[in-house]
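Q: I have 398 residues here and want to know how they pack in 3D. Can you give me a structure?
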Amino acid sequence: MVVFLVEYGVSAPTRGVSMSTIGRRAFVAMSMAALSAGGGCRGARAAVSAYDPTTPDLQFAGLVSPFDVAAARSLRGEPATDLDCDKAPKPVTVLDHESKYKPGTNSSVEDSDREEDYQEKLKEVSGFYNPLTRISDRYVRSQPRASEIAQCALHWLSGWAQAGALEKGVTEQGRMVQAWALASLAGSYLKIRSDPYLSPSANREVLDWLGRLNGLVIANFDSRQDKKSRSNNHRYWANWAVCATAIAQDDAESFAWAKAGFERACAQVEPDGVLPLEMERRRKALHYHNFALGPLVLHAEALIANGQADAYGLNDGAVKRLAGFVVSGLRDPAIFAERAGEKQDLDGTLKETQLAWMEPYYARFKDESLTLWMKDYRPLVAHRLGGDLTLLFGAELA
């Protein structure tokens, strides 16, 4: 912890920073170092950031993030009251997850024993990226900007980067977890990357690690094309994860790979909005149609941010047709039951994490059919889609 604080204190830019600010920064560093024996930075509170919030954010040429942090902070920010940084969870290096579904059921019937084991192992990973997302959301919300919070997020990321987390012993289901994790990690990084006080060395470690994970996700989804996971919602999540990471790294080649996957996904949407591979989930068909919308909507927003204005218009408005079909099903699940041949199981569907796609979609189209759920479930937060999407995209409801 001492090294962490000293590095950030010394390496921070001093342009435009007063001596009194530097003095406060040194004081905070020494105080937090004294507390480090307890693990983490809990208890180190400050009403005012030790860093000059008027120092300009870093600007990036090339690929553009779909998250406008400055706009979100300006519209919905508030003074930070918590500058604490808890100790990050122990890095998970092996992803030996197995599916929670019974074999031969088209991933529609859960096995209680497999479910328990799967959730236990998944929590070891989500127990890192979920709180990391909340930290990065705190940073976006801080007005004036509290650079300590961005540094905390980067410290968490660099610790897992140094451990080579999420890279080894990957099972087939573990590959899906790897893609979900990358989507969340890249989303959190995109929200903090413009802070002018981030450590260059830690930043480089994190980008290198995200790049390695990105390569593993691409290699996995380029292999075994006969598997449904290479074409169904798993591929959509991989597309979004690679897209977000490509933006962080300004990697045009990876961005193009993800874009091709998005176009392929749009081509799968039938005229009535059906995704055939998700309809095969039978009793979970509506759940997985909705689940598929999250990465597709965020990916469309990323493409628009990077000049593809017609992202929602591909294949005669494929994503919009899918959204309309899902909303119809949420209103009347019998629509899906008739198509799938089974009564729909909506357990785990009607909650903020699963409906978070509605926030950027409503901000884009002002689709009043969404307000019924948005009013009930806001703030809409999905860790794999960037975190608090109400904070990032929220628009006044009609």
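Q: Anything worth noting?
A: The domain at 1-221 is CATH 1.50.10.100 (Glycosyltransferase). The first strand starts at residue 381 and ends at 382.
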